[in-house]
Every structure is written in C-alpha cells, then in structure tokens.
Amino acid sequence: MRKLVVASNNINKIKEIKNILKAVPVEILSLSEAGINVEIEENGNSFIENAYIKAEKIVNMLSGVMVLADDSGLAVDSLGGAPGIYSARFSGEHGNSKKNNEKLLSLLQNKNFSERKASFICAMVLISENGEIIRVQEKVDGIIIDEERGHNGFGYDPIFYLEDYKQTFGEIDSVLKNKISHRARALAKLHQEIERLIRRG
Questions:
Q1: What is the C-alpha separation between 148 and 171, in angstroms, rounded?
Q2: Do 73 and 100 form a contact (C-beta atoms < 8 A)?
Q3: How far apart are CA 176 and CA 8, in angstroms?
Q4: Per-residue model confidence (pLDDT) at position 10
Q5: Quick check: 38 and 88 in contact, CB under 8 A?
Q6: Which of 71, 141, 157, 173 is catalytic?
Q7: Cβ atoms of 143 and 75 closer than 8 Å
Q8: Distance between CA 145 and CA 132 in Å, rounded?
Q9: What is the pLDDT of residues 89-129, one digit of tens each?
Q10: What is d(CA 140, CA 122) in angstroms, rounded to the nearest whole number?
C-alpha cells in the first residue's frame, strides 16, 4: 500500500484527515509515525505558501511517499483577516487555544453581529512521489460568538458558530464536522487527486 505522510504531529488534525480519507487506499502517517522529528519555520505570507513550505521540507527528507501539508486558520472580516496565518500563535504562545480564544473574544467585545463574520480557511498542498504538486484551498463561513460552547473539536471551534446548524464547531459531532468543515472540503478535492495518482501508478 502506498504511503501518505502528513506534515504534522497535531493529533486532532491527523485524526480528522485519517477519518475523512479513510476510503482512500493509502497508509496515512503523521511525522512522528514516519520517524521524522523536525521544526519547520512557516514564514510564508499566505496559508497556501505555508502549506507548500511544509510539504517541500518533508518531501526532501523522504522518498517513495506522497506528502500532504495543510495550513489552516481563522479569518475575521472586521479584524482585517486576523488572526489568519497566525491563528495557532495569536496570543503569542503557540497552540494555546484557551489564550487564543480569549484574545480574539476581547478584540470582538464591542463588535455587533455583522462585525463578527469569520471564515475557517484550509489550504493544502500534496506532493506526489514523482514531484507533482497539487494545491487546494477551501473555507467555511460562520460567526464568532461571545462565549465558548461545546467540548468537541479544537482550537477556535467552540466560538465558531454555524448559522445553518445553530451550533458551534465545538457542539456538532465529528461525523458532521468531517463532512462540512474547511478541511473536509479541501480533502474532498484532494481525495479525487489522490485516487487519480493511485490509478496512474
């Protein structure tokens, strides 16, 4: 079975990707599962640039595998697209979801409903064994509410409210999230591309 290495050790992200791509006949591995321990500086100016930087770094360390990298985050219209590519370290401490959420809510404290529109964005870059590069980017729109709701999901999920479902990403179950999220939409596009690569051999 062909291998697909995801350029991440984020447990939640790896779990989502494995669930969404479970029908694809590839073995999906995190960096640690592939035996890689490396820090990658994400110094791009966009989600897609950062995803490419990560994918290229890992593909140069391995051979005979496909590499998938994503860069995703939250963009709030009234904050000029912030936190954007700095979503994971918005509070200054990388990966501290509690502090990131608190900072965002404080910035939106006096904003009305229309000023709380936001989008979750996911950019993905797949590099095949022979160096073919596939880029996709998708998003899902919502509203930032003023308190955390739900214990599912991770990151900004508990404050990202979906009007169509009357719930936050922290409240909806993982099965639904893995059908409608920004990551699910990007992976749906990549699903077809991965199957094409597999058919081609």
A1: 10
A2: no
A3: 23
A4: 87
A5: no
A6: 71
A7: no
A8: 41
A9: 999 888 899 999 999 999 999 899 999 999 999 999 999 99
A10: 9
**Which stretches does DSSP call E strand in the chain?**
2-6, 26-29, 66-76, 117-127, 133-144, 160-162, 167-168
What's the CA gap between 141 and 157, in Å, rounded?
Answer: 12
- Is 71 a known active-site residue? yes
pLDDT over 70, % of the chain: 100
The model's pTM is: 0.91
Nearest to 59, CA basis, from 43, 33, 36, 32:
36
Q: Tokens 């964005």 belong to which residue? A: 121
CA distance 23 to 21: 5
Could you tell me the strand order of the sheet in which 160-162 lies? 26-29, 2-6, 66-76, 117-127, 133-144, 160-162, 167-168
Residue 151 backbone class (left: φ over 0; alpha: ψ -120 to 50; beta: rest): alpha
User: What single-letter amino acid sits at 61?
Assistant: M
Residue tagged 């998003």 (tokens): 139
First-to-last alpha carbon distance for the chain, in angstroms, is 11
Cross-strand partners of 120: 74, 140
Nearest to 2 by CA among 122, 126, 188: 126
pLDDT tens for 156-189 read 999 999 999 999 999 999 899 989 999 999 999 9
Nearest to 3 by CA among 20, 21, 12: 21
In CATH terms, the fold of domain 2-200 is Maf protein (3.90.950)
Amino acid letter for position 172: I
